[in-house]
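User: I'm writing a short methods note and want a consistent example. For Rieske (2Fe-2S) protein, I'll paste the sequence; you return only the structure tokens, no commentary, since I'll be parsing the reply automatically.
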Amino acid sequence: MADHEATAHHHEHHPEDPQAHATRRAILQAAIGVSAGAAVLSTLWVGAGLVPREEKVPSKEPVAVGDTLVFATGPKADQEITLDDLRAAQQEKIPFIIAFPKSPENVVKKDLITNTIMVILADPNKMSPETRQYASPEGVLAYSAVCKHLGCTVSQWQNDTWLCPCHGGRYDIYNQAKVVGGPVPAPVPQLPVKVEGGKVVVAGEFLGEPGADV
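Assistant:
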């Protein structure tokens, strides 16, 4: 009988202290939370390592000060544009040259659409003061050749006016490419240039954002 009572006494259940139970539960939940958080962070870290890094492509870099302008098309493609080339273009039906910038490292930046540039030798006496300020003393002018309407290349010339063949947008090159016709929403930005060693060199950033506005 004494042994039975001792055994019964040994298995007797004592009610758990509610505060102690709550404390253990809080510790357990915190441990689960930390483990889950660590797992999420680990997943994010691994995922970030799998995302390919965007690498700079030299031919897609935007035009920069010090770049030299080269022919974009034709038999002289990628060759540097000289003052003599611009003088010769004055005698043609299309008196300007479509160009791309070439970096000092000799990379032609032809794979960025907003690097398409129009360069022309014009009469400084016809230019507005603001236009002349960013032209070379010889009269070399440059503008973004990407139409502000839908992004076509402005590649035609008519009645002393620069013309977009897509929808008839017209620009006045002597007055910072002021829009004088067509559905164009804004002028294309001028690109400051200078002549060094007979070649056309970029002297500043575009005076506005190149590319289509619509």
